[in-house]
Design brief:
mainly alpha
């Protein structure tokens, strides 16, 4: 049974509107990703100008925070895209009522043919690939925090590396000892240690 003319026009208008909203959220996700990645890149580049390890920890935390923000923005835009996609699919189904079966199944048959030709790529979810970018930058931020904190610890420790040959003649260091800090003094900082 075909839709009345007024209903068909309304359904067509709503289909187009939700298709535009779905496209908009995909464009906004791409723009947000570009902005967040640019901020992360700038933060990472800024770390090379600071020699103080505490700036490294702060910079790593900024990178982690921006990565989490990117993940949240990505998931939110995908959620809105799915909402509009599902609504437009409902309107499309209504618009297809009364069409011949050949026309109704044309897109589905083409999709099956395409997915058969590209099985692995077709099965890959694009929104998950976007998340991989942020998981990678989150890892970079975490690694930066870890390395900066480790550098802070090692700057406050003195390495005593007496060499003791093993049975095979290879010399190995066997101890790492922290400096003794008098009770009334604070530990040395990097600037005072160098």
């Amino acid at each position: 049974m075909s839709l009345p003319t007024d209903d068909r026009e309304f359904a067509k208008m709503m289909y187009e509107e939700h298709a535009e909203h779905a496209r908009l959220h995909e464009e906004l996700r791409a723009a947000a990703t570009s902005l967040v990645i640019a901020l992360i890149s700038g933060s990472l580049a800024a770390l090379f100008f600071f020699e103080n390890q505490r700036h490294g920890v702060a910079g790593g935390l900024v990178i982690c925070g921006l990565s989490v923000l990117g993940i949240v923005l990505n998931v939110k835009h995908y959620e809105r895209y799915v909402l509009h996609r599902d609504i437009l699919r409902d309107f499309r189904e209504k618009l297809q009522q009364g069409l011949s079966p050949t026309i109704q199944t044309l897109a589905e048959e083409r999709r099956k043919t395409h997915e058969g030709a590209w099985p692995v790529i077709s099965a890959t979810r694009l929104h998950l690939l976007w998340l991989v970018v942020y998981v990678f930058t989150l890892g970079i931020g975490g690694y930066t925090v870890y390395k900066s904190a480790a550098r802070d610890i090692f700057l406050e420790c003195q390495s005593i590396l007496p060499v003791e040959p093993r049975g095979d003649g290879i010399a190995t260091p066997f101890a790492l000892k922290c400096k003794e800090v008098p009770e009334n003094k604070s530990p040395p900082t990097r600037s005072s240690a160098t």
